Amino acid sequence: MLTPPTDPSAASGSSAAGSASPSRRTVLGAMAATAATVPGLLALGSPASAAPAADPLPGGGDLGPNVIVFDPSTSGIQAKLDEIFKQQESAQFGTGRYAFLFKPGTYNGLNAQLGFYTSIAGLGLSPDDTAINGDVTVDAGWFNGNATQNFWRSAENLALTPVNGTNRWAVAQAAPFRRMHVRGGLNLAPDGYGWASGGYIADSRIDGTVGPYSQQQWYTRDSSVGGWTNAVWNMVFSGVEGAPAQSFPDPPYTTLDTTPVSREKPFLYLDGADYKVFLPEKRTDARGTTWGGGTPRGTSLALTQFYVAKPGVTAATLNAALDQGLNLLLTPGIYHLDAAMEVKRANAVVLGLGYATLIPDNGVTAVKVADVDGVRLAGFLIDAGAVNSQTLLEVGPSGASTDHSANPVTVQDVFVRIGGAGPGKATTSIVVNSRHTIIDHTWVWRADHGDGVGWETNRADYGVRVNGDDVLATGLFVEHFNKYDVYWAGQRGRTIFFQNEKAYDAPNQAAVQDGNVKGFAAYKVDDSVTSHEGWGLGSYCNFTADNTIRQDHGFAAPDTSGVKFHDLLVVSLGGQGQYEHVINDTGAATSGTSTVPSTVVSYP
User: In the chain, what's the furthest Cα-to-Cα distance?
Assistant: First the structure.
């Protein structure tokens, strides 16, 4: 069983400004004392036998030992960064969770190397408020130069001036690069240009050139780049100033001038000495960063409007805080839930720091969202428990039908894992029933390595199921599920960028037979759907348990004019299984041991 992490040494400056809301305990105590001495006073209130009202939960407070806050005068910053990196560099399935927060100002000569479950962020309202003359580095020395397992780390809201002119960010899935200003270039490959398979950039400005080099696929949204050097299989851009022109498949650039709808992730910042959470406003037909023209547009919430949760808190307490009208700030650590966290209130915010991790016990659902406007879920990991959960995250109840177009639910940097850190099972990871929901960067992963891994051991039939209408996914990474990785039944759905691998461990052809169809599609649109569109979607097979398995197609959809796909590809990795077609019966088969994609530019 996983236990909450402990910090090897508590750093100074890790408490947050913001006093707790006043408790009623003192007032109620005084009333009780008065009642004991004034005859008949109890008759004015509740009967003496009634249960006392629970004290309200406090808002604001300390961010806990694993949020480590620096200011420019802090001594030993590099030593602290190095200490945590040494602990986290190869702790892929460990229990450590950390967030480094830098107060506004200038920091010189730093190299913040980020290991697993480590986030780094500035505390300004703009990235340029917090300047590091140095680097925020992800490399793959721990894995012999292979960056394909550099998961679960993030960088946000900083301006970097790299020492040698180019910052290295060699990541894989679940490693967002948000609200960053790189005053130079950005290298997305590991030292030595080994394997790499990421990744995601949003609301960022890279003054120089981005070099993906060995990165197989990448998605960049609402940003600005000084240039882009090359592509391997699948490079997708929406709303990116300086992006290469549309040219899929040679080179494989998929470029949309704008992003139809976007709303950036909430973030913690300092307003003077007070911590607040900024909530960026929704944009339509977005292009470029939210902050390049000055103060970003949106609203702020004081930290006193958040219940600051720490590992060990119960689901009942989290729900009491939400019911009381507080939002949730999940500090770094591992949270076991014996009941679902239920978000029932419009505009509620659940924001995690340092890859706060929710584990549902006894088969419960981790998070349920009501059919209400404007809920924001961001910055946490859901790790399936040993007892099968029917679902892990439910956005809206079954049959939800409310129009949320003016104020959608957003799910951002919310990641799901089935197995790897230990036994885990879930029939479906994410179910989206609410209309107009925006899924902005998720990695939903049935583990192919680690502990508790096997075709039935970490059984998980479906990754993401979308039943609601008008849902938009920007940066959808879903991999290795026993049946469909994505099953889309809502009308007018849209996906910009999809990355998928089919389950490595399928034991034989019969295990993945979908009726008369060979293999479950990576992305299936239900036959009832009449309107759907996708751009820049890729699926790869690597059937290591039985390399004779064949997929009829990577993508399946009704053959109707309202269902459209652009820039699709399937790849057989080294001949470990093959695809017969790309989508339905369209597109050439993969063949042999080459990893040359089979592509379809437009369907139908």
Answer: 92
Contact 387, 420 (CB under 8 A): no
Which one is catalytic: 264, 394, 501, 580? Answer: 501
Q: Which residue has the tokens 């890279």?
A: 206
Positive or negative: CA dihedral 309, 311, 316, 317:
negative
Token pair for residue 336?
């076991």
Over residues 42-60, mean pLDDT: 60
**Dihedral sign from CA coordinates of 501, 506, 511, 513:** positive
CA distances from 398 to 394, 416, 433, 435 (A): 9, 21, 6, 11
Q: Where are the alpha helices (DSSP H) in 133-181?
A: none
Whole-number Å distance between alpha carbons of 468 and 528: 13
Report the amino acid identity of residue 11.
A
Active site annotation includes 501? yes
Dig out the tokens for 128 from the structure.
């340029």
Compute the distance between CA of residue 252 and CA of residue 248 in angstroms, rounded to an integer: 4
Average pLDDT over residues 103-132: 98
Nearest to 448 by CA among 415, 479, 427, 476: 479
CA-wise closest residue to 311 among 6, 9, 536: 6
Helix (H) or strand (E) holding 28: helix 25-37
Contact 116, 95 (CB under 8 A): no
What pTM was estimated for this model as a whole? 0.91
Structure tokens at 522: 């990576």
At residue 509, the 3 state secondary structure works out as helix
| Sign of the torsion angle spanned by Cα atoms 40, 45, 51, 53 | negative
Per-residue model confidence as pLDDT tens digits over 552-580: 999 999 999 999 999 999 999 999 999 99
